[in-house]
Each structure stands twice: as structure tokens, then as C-alpha cells.
Amino acid sequence: MTNYDYIVIGAGSAGCVVANRLTEDSDTTVLLLEAGNPDTKPEIHIPAQCLSLLGSEVDWSYFSEPEPYLNNRKIFCPRGKVLGGSSSINIMIYLRGNSHDYDHWQSLGNPGWSYLDVLPYFKKSENFSRGASKFHGVDGELSVTDLIAPAVVSQRFVDAAVELGYDHNSDPNGMQQLGAGLYQLTIKDGKRHSAAAAFLLPIFQRPNLTVTTKALVTRLLFEGTRTIGVEYLHEDMLHQVRVNSEVILSAGAFDSPKLLMLSGIGDAEHLQTLGIPVVADLPGVGQNLQDHPVVSVAHEATQDLHTASSSSVAEAGLFLHTPGNLDAAPDLQFLFGPVVLAPPGYAHSGLGFTSFVCLTHPQNIGSVSLRSPDPKDTPMIQMNFLQSETDVQKLVVGIKLLRNLFGASALDEFRGKEIAPGADKQSDAALEAYIRDTCSTVWHPVGTCKMGIDPMAVVDPELRVHGVEGLRVVDASIMPTITTGNTNAPTIMIGEKAADLIKAERCKPSAVSSYLA
Questions:
Q1: Which end of the chain is more exposed for a tag (fewer CB within 10 A), N or C?
Q2: CB of 446 closer than 8 Å to CB of 71
Q3: Chain segment 438-468, per-residue pLDDT in tens
Q4: Using omega within 30 degrees of 0 as the cis cutoff, is the peptide bond preceding 283 cis?
Q5: Binding-site entries for FAD
């Protein structure tokens, strides 16, 4: 059986970073296992083609279970099935979240995760097109850039927000997040700069790195509670590999808890029901699922919007506090793009623009559980969107605010008729019905292997899985609470910080002696 110092499961936003950093030491061997395909599909690399990737062969195309508060609709939950993970199919927005997000993580019993602690890791990854500053780095692998050729209507969205009294904010990753501006994107030379393109492609030739695609990990291997390796399916054959030091699970908010449960780590009662031997009774595995619910307001456009191939479907945005919101972080995010993204059933043709209304800190908490003990089965996903009436009312407020913004004079030359919700939906009751009929996700699942010290925590503040040895989870699933905005940048940061934690562990005398044994 082949041995590696580290095995990383999942070549997504965090896994690519961890594999890169650990193999900087030429004496450290790393096996990176990715269940998806190589990132050779041409559309991956063309920013304006990102929507064509949804539901394709590079997408797991998960669906939730029927959602009780959304008229029992199943919610489409795309996840990257490819090198780079979801960073290879997302809309490329680079947003770190709010400083209060990370200070809150620390207050929950996670020392070392405050904003001041994680800021250096954001900067470490980054090559920011505007240059270095207190908030930005230029020596990192990941290209973070302003839009090369934003559509004029996207700039008019920002102008409309300023016209209504909101601040102009040219850098939501800087001093403050509130206000309107054009988004920063992970694009390099007009092409998508995924985690694979940034962190993996440049190091493919390192002799101490082995990357295997189309490798579905079926279970973790244990001796007692010590992780000793993994089993995976590749080309219809089962393989087993041993690990000398640690296994790093970076399969994402749906598949990391799935693999833990398949391997006997999770709620003992759930596992026993499925006949899975229990290695560690951790009831929090798969719980605490959080995501950002969204609804859209779409308009026809009166003229060609001249979008570029380097454009994203979301070019501009706005963060704001709704009336009465006492939280430190904004509770609404708008994502605006020069494309029509009306919900199913809303007929349209031709040109248009859309903004999503996104709840940054919804009250819904969902879960991920096993459908069966078969590793090929999809996980059972329950979002529980709009369980809270407060969330519904905030989305109603968001639609009204967005309608006011779309009515500003800055958009006069572009604004056609409203496609969705539609001019006939004006009352609160009509908007509430529209929200429950159309609310979906903006594809930011987190939290299902949350970090902490409470009974429902899955990993400790160093991302080690409670109750076992030699196993960490490193991806968006470790977030105790969801960040304010898009989640790709925070996930890359988690990979950076985890790599340092892993290296520090290996340098401890006890770790060195056991490693050499």
C-alpha cells in the first residue's frame, strides 16, 4: 500500500491551497484526490460563460429535499465537480465578508480567528490589481482584479444607489463593506482564475505532489480512532492508501460531512440506523447548514448592454442595513448584472438586467444527512429557507428598496418593463407569495462541520476533528456562522490558515517523533 505524508480530499478552493503550501517542503509528499474532472472544459475559463456550467458534467447538480417553507420545491444546489471545485463554476466575485464575521467566530470560542488574525491570510493569497495596501496583498497566487470592461448599466446601478443616498464604496474588502460599487473578481488576463489555475496548475510538476482526478473517496480508514488512510474508487477499482501524518478533508459543505458519516463519524443514532460502525459520536456532523437565500428583480433593457467576454453575471453590488437592523454587519446584499436571470415561469426575451436580493445572515439552519451507506448516493440536503417570518419580511423590504433603486434617474436610459416580480405584484402579500415561489440559493453552503468547543462542534479551532486523531476538515463547512457575502475568498483564507496550522503541528517535538517512528 502506497504511503503519503498527507492526503487531501477535494481539489476545491481550500484543498488546492493546502496542497500547494504543504508541498513547498520538497520532503513532504501529498496525494490530492479529486472526484471530479480535470478543468479542461473551455467554458470554465470564459467568465461570461459561467452560467453554462451549471448542470453540466463539471457540476454535481445536487438538489435539496422538498423545502417545507418554499411550497415543497426542491432547490438546485450546484457544486463544482472539477479541479478547482466550485471556484471553477462560480461567478468569480471576490468578497471576504465583514470584519465582524471573524470577530464573532473568535467570540464563540475560536481563538486565532478574529479579523486581525485572518487578514494576513487573505493578503497572502492575493495579487491585487490596484497594488498593495493595509488591506491588500500583491505577492499571492490569486489574481484579484477590477472589471476590465464593465457594462455601462452596471456603473449606472452604482450611480442609482448613490442617487438614493447610499455611499459609494470602491473597495468592499477594505475599510468598510457598506455601500455600492463594482465587484472585484478572480480573473487573470480575461480568464477565470480559479483555485486550480492559481494554486495547482503552477505546481503540477512538483515531484512530491500526486494529483488524481475522477477519484471518489468512499471512506476514511482507522485504527481505533487514529486516521491511517483512505479508500477511493478510481476507474471502477477500489484503492487504499496510507497516510503518515494527516488526512485533510476539503470536500465542501455537502460532501465533507457525507464522507465523515460514511466513515463512522457523526450522530451515532443516524449511523447505526444505516448499519455504519461508529468511530466517533459527533452529533454536529451535517448540522448547522447555512446559506444565503436570494430572490431576483429582473427588467427588460431598452438598448444593447454591450457585455464583454470577460464580464461576470454579477458586476456591481450594494451592502446595506435594513431599517431596524442592529447587527454590526449589513443584512442585505444586492448583486447586479447585465443579464436576465428571471425565475422559471417568467417569460422574457432579449436584453435585460437583474439584481438579486440576498439575505446575508438568514435565520434558517439546515442539515446534511446520508441517504444510504452507498458512497455514490447523493447526500440529503435540507435548507429550511424562509423558516423565519423575519427573513421573509427582510426580502420584501429588499425588493421594495431595489425597485426604488431601479426607478432612479441614473437608469432611465436603460430601464424597460419589470419582468419579475412584475408590475402586478405590489402588495406585501403578493411579494411574499413571489418570494416563497421563487426563493433560491446563491450557492454559498457552509457550516456543516462547524469549528468550536461546544457539543455540536465538529472541529476544534485548529480544524482537527473532535474525537479522532490525524484528521482535519479544511473548507467552508468549518464556518460556525456564514460570512457577509460570497464565500469563495473566505474558503481560500481557511486553506491558507489551515496549512500553517498543519505545518506548525508537524514541527512540534511530539509530532516529529511520532512521524519518524
A1: C
A2: no
A3: 999 999 999 999 999 999 999 999 999 999 9
A4: no
A5: 82, 217, 443-444
For residue range 486-496, what is the model confidence (pLDDT) as tens digits?
A: 999 999 999 99
Three cell numbers, residue 112: 486565532
CA atoms within 13 A on the CB side of 37: 12
Cβ atoms within 10 Å, residue 346: 16
Predicted confidence band of residue 346 (pLDDT cuts 50, 70, 90):
confident
Calculate ∠ Cα 100-104-108, nearest 5°.
175
pLDDT digits (tens, 9 = 90+) for 264-302: 999 999 999 999 999 999 999 999 999 999 999 999 999
The length of the chain in residues reads: 517
How buried is 409 (Cβ within 10 angstroms: 0-12 exposed, 13-18 middle, 19+ buried)?
A: exposed
**pTM for the predicted model, two decimal places:** 0.97
Outline where DSSP puts E strands in 302-439: 316-320, 332-337, 352-359, 367-369, 380-382, 415-420
Catalytic residue check, 444:
yes
pLDDT at 516: 32
Pick from 238, 185, 213, 243: which is nearest to 40 by CA?
213
Q: Coil, strand or helix: which one is 171?
A: coil
Q: How far is the C-alpha of 251 from the C-alpha of 477, rounded, in Å? A: 9
Instruction: For residue 433, give the 3-state DSSP assignment.
Output: helix
Residue 509's pLDDT is 57
Q: Which three three-digit cell numbers place residue 305?
A: 448592454
**Single-letter amino acid code for the residue at 325:** N
Average pLDDT for the chain: 95
Contact 338, 455 (CB under 8 A): no
Mean pLDDT of 497-511: 82
- Annotated binding-site residues read 82, 217, 443-444
Packed helices 488-507 and 115-125: angle between N→C axes, nearest 10 degrees:
100
Residues whose CB is less than 8 angstroms from the CB of residue 175 and which lie 6 or more positions away in sequence, other chains included: 135
CA gap 505, 248 in Å, rounded = 13
C-alpha cell at 440: 433560491
- Cα 213 from chain centroid? 21
C-alpha dihedral sign at 105, 107, 108, 113: positive
Among candidate residues 193, 292, 444, 466, the one labeled active-site is 444
